[in-house]
Structure formats: structure tokens, C-alpha cells
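Support case: tetrahydrodeoxyuridine complex. Customer-provided input:
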Amino acid sequence: MDYKFLADKAIEAKGISHPPYSNFHVGAALLTEENKIYLGGNIETSSYSLTICAERTAVFKAFSEGERKFKAVAIASDSPDFCPPCGSCRQVLMDLCGDIDVVMINHKEELKTLKLSQLLPFAFGDKDLK
Ligand code: THU
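Agent response - structure generated as follows:
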């Protein structure tokens, strides 16, 4: 699938990020099964560890609006490299969105798409709590 449209939304979402301490702007765009897109930016607070990443902002926004089925998430930053989701976001995405496509974007606006299970193999999940 061509995720250029979703990548453009992630790049746009950098504009709603709030990183006054790191100044590292991240934008995420989460695509639902019904093709609705939820945007998220990273939000930092003075108590640094309470920061929330762009991906989790987008997932929690979507979830709290009742969304439950997802296809892909795109992630953009100003780094020259493809911006991968952090480990915490990988776990949250796997638990709440399943094995979706993860679209990473670099500063040339090139895309690299992997399945979430490639980024988080042998994941802990529901099945392990039984
Ligand atoms: N950040 C994200 O928003 N997503 C990630 O997956 C990696 C890191 C944010 C958190 C923090 O506000 C800033 O980037 C620097 O770590």
C-alpha cells in the first residue's frame, strides 16, 4: 500500500507537538480500518519522565473516541534517519492496535514500512496473562 498520504499527515502532526525541553518534534498519524486518521504529537512536561510520545498520543486519542481497528501508523521527526517508535510505544501499539504497518519517514520524506511484529518480535501480550 502507498502510505504517502499518511506520511504527509504525520509530517503535519509535528506541528501539534509540544517538546519545549528536547525541542525534538515528533508527529504520528494513525489510520483506522475505516480510513479515519488520528494525529498525535509528543507532549513534554517539566517532570521529564511524564512525557508522552507522539504515537501514544495518537493511539489514546483514537481509543478514547471508541476506535478499535487499525491499519497503520506513520511517524515523522526532523531527524535525518527514519524515525522508529520507541520500545514503550511498540508495546502499546501491539496491545491496542495489533500487528499494523509502521511507516517511518526520514528528512527527505522517504518512507520505510515494516510490520510492527518485525519491530517487536516475540511480544508480550494478552496471551501471556492467561
Ligand atoms: N519521542 C516520540 O514522540 N516518539 C518516539 O517513538 C521516540 C521519542 C519523543 C519523546 C520526547 O518528547 C522526544 O521524542 C525525545 O525523546
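The longest strand covers residues 70-76.

Case will auto-close in a few days if no follow-up is received.
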